[in-house]
Design brief:
With 418 residues, the chain is an alpha/beta fold. About 12% of the residues have low confidence. Strand 13, helix 10 and strand 14 form a beta-alpha-beta unit. The chain has two domains: 198 residues, 3-Layer(aba) Sandwich (Rossmann fold), CATH 3.40.50; 198 residues, Vaccinia Virus protein VP39 (Rossmann fold). Helices cover 28% and strands 32% of the residues. It starts with a helix and ends with a strand. It contains twelve helices and 20 strands.
Length: 418
């Protein structure tokens, strides 16, 4: 288990056991991005609050499924008090009507790799907490956890504590605990960052400023892809507006601000090596914002399906398909496990990071699933970093492959069934 998640669970248990009148953990929310669960996809049963509601929110299909499986294994009384929400971390998707004052008593969050996402979650947590409710953040110093404590204090003028346990830091904010004007944020010899003196307030807090979440909820144009230039084809004046793809994306989608160099190389190599417009079907496995799905559709593939484990990515792909008036079927799924269709072509730029860490089992899973989704004469085209030993995964599946390009940064591998 990730050490930060272990610390977060221990903090939750300690908080529940305290008898201070100001601590109320009737309704807990656990914010779960791709850091939350490591392989195998299991949930520590200690995460469930025995005396109240345990809620989860995630944008990952596999995480949602693992949480739901853990909920189903609880006792009937615990099962009724636990719920998982598959959402782009929008707290308004949570059914709060049965909670204390329609608010949350504790929010637990292992900080995300993407700052904009973390800021979006923190902003919502502050708004949705009950009086004396707690926001608990955990992470390592190298992940920027101390910066979150600093911004909560300096930008939002909120009192926080920062405690160090090994290389893991825990940030705690208690709502409506108002600092005195002269207080300072000080880190002691044990790593504790705190403000003194503090005083309690029963008055409604004034509206606080928010951390910069880069307009997290807005899908916006981020870059353009000129397919004619990419494929070194002559311009077609009559179709010029179709040959430049305007790609829209948002925080929460991997690499959302840029046209990934690996994806660019894969599309260019495909165009040079195969007759794309002769293909009847293609699957974009791990579609992100849908760049490859859009390009394949524009260059004549009859049926294009795009799938991703991240529902935020699916939202961006659907937005791009609608913007360009392309018919692309989108499926939110854990590495295409529920897709029964077989395809002439599978394209994939697989992730090899899970949260802050590299995660080699992801490549193994993507290769296995891509091969499984091929028609007998179909091909799966992968782009990976040159150091990723994808060949071992292909051999384990008893498939054949050919390295089409290796420029020492990326390599393009074409896989086919034996």
């Amino acid at each position: 288990m990730d050490k930060a998640i272990h610390t977060l669970i221990k903090t939750a248990i300690d908080t529940r056991q305290q008898n201070d009148k100001h601590i109320n953990t009737i309704s807990e929310l656990w914010v779960c991005d791709d850091n939350f669960i490591q392989t195998p996809h299991t949930i520590d049963p200690a995460i469930f609050n025995p005396n109240g509601n345990t809620l989860f929110i995630t944008n990952r299909v596999d995480t949602h499924q693992a949480i739901q499986h853990a909920i189903d294994r609880q006792t009937p009384s615990q099962n009724d008090c636990a719920h998982s929400y598959l959402s782009d971390f929008d707290f308004s998707d949570i059914h709060l009507s049965q909670l204390n004052n329609n608010r949350l008593d504790a929010v637990y969050f292992r900080i995300a790799k993407e700052k904009a996402l973390s800021h979006y979650v923190i902003n919502q947590a502050i708004a949705y907490l009950n009086s004396n409710g707690r926001l608990i953040l955990v992470g390592q110093k190298s992940e920027g956890i101390k910066g979150y404590a600093d911004r909560l204090k300096k930008q939002l003028k909120l009192p926080v504590t920062l405690e160090k346990n090994g290389d893991i830091y825990t940030v705690t904010y208690i709502k409506n605990k108002i600092k005195a004007p002269s207080s300072e944020l000080i880190e002691g010899p044990t790593g504790e960052l705190t403000e003194e003196p503090t005083k309690e307030s029963t008055e409604a807090p004034t509206k606080t400023p928010q951390l910069d979440d880069q307009q997290y909820t807005t899908i916006k144009p981020v870059h353009e892809v000129n397919l004619n230039k990419l494929y070194n084809q002559p311009d077609h004046q009559s179709d010029n507006q179709l040959n430049t793809l305007t790609i829209h994306s948002k925080p929460g989608v991997y690499g959302w601000k840029k046209f990934d160099a690996g994806t660019q190389l894969l599309l260019q190599t495909l165009a040079e090596k195969i007759n794309i417009n002769a293909l009847q079907s293609a699957l974009d496995l791990g579609c992100g914002s849908g760049v490859m799905a859009l390009a394949l559709k524009q260059f004549g593939v009859n049926e294009v399906v795009a799938t991703d484990n991240n529902i935020t990515a699916i939202m961006a792909t659907e937005h791009n398909a609608l913007f360009h008036n392309y018919e692309i079927k989108t499926i939110k799924d854990d590495c295409a496990k529920s897709i029964n269709q077989r395809f002439n072509l599978v394209v994939c730029n697989p992730p090899f990071h899970k949260g802050f860490d590299t995660h080699s089992p992801l490549t193994t899973l993507f290769v296995k699933q891509a091969i499984h989704k091929l028609l007998p004469q179909g091909e799966a085209w992968f782009v990976v970093n040159s150091f990723v030993p994808i060949e071992k995964n292909i051999n384990a599946e008893k498939a054949t492959y050919k390295t089409m390009v290796n420029n020492k940064q990326f390599k393009i591998v074409c896989i086919s069934k034996k």
